[in-house]
User: What shape does this take?
Amino acid sequence: MKYRTTLQSLIIFACLLLSILSPVGAAGQQQKMRIDRRAIRPNLLAPELYSDKLSLKITLMNLPGAATSASYWEVEFQVFFVPEQEFEKNMKELNKAGKGRELRPEYFPGRILLATGKFNKQRLDTLKERAFVREAIPFRDKVPAEQQTSFSSLMSFYSVKVFDGKLKKDIYGSDVFIVPPFETDTNDRNSLVARTGLFLNFFVAEDGSLYRSNTKSASESTEWNPN
Assistant: This one.
């Protein structure tokens, strides 16, 4: 009876696991694993939520003087993975010290560098010319298996300088975007899938103010929509 009970328990567990995880993607495409968001909890090992590779797209959505030859755009960036427990512990300490709004890479000694670079663009007439893309950034293989938990962090630090030839003004910005390794499945709001893309978007208004966003939709638009 004990053997039968154990076998039944294993079968039930396998069925539950299959109900939580299911592949997403058509034939010929890289399959992602879908996971029910209700199954996610802190410090849960979830390698299925880590993509093999990431892409990074940095976009200057709008610039009043985009068509002016004197205008240019410079960006430096660094993308890090930070383990879940370290991020939580260090953020608590930084907030106590009043440094929670001024994050720097060195505040997270266990960080893993995924990508770094810089560029300068002087042809800014079209949205395509104002976009920078880095493809095939190795991700999952660079993260130790024991650190592939659900609520770890991807931190994208950036420093931006824009000169607008129409406004005759330098515009600066530096900060960080922080996202988890997963994102909501666009076909099922109750499910999560591995994140495959990171987006850094910047919008210069007519008065020279700089706005930022990290959504995919903003990277495809020239209009600022704060919602």
The chain has two helices and eleven strands. The helical segments are 2-20, 84-96. The radius of gyration is 21 Å.
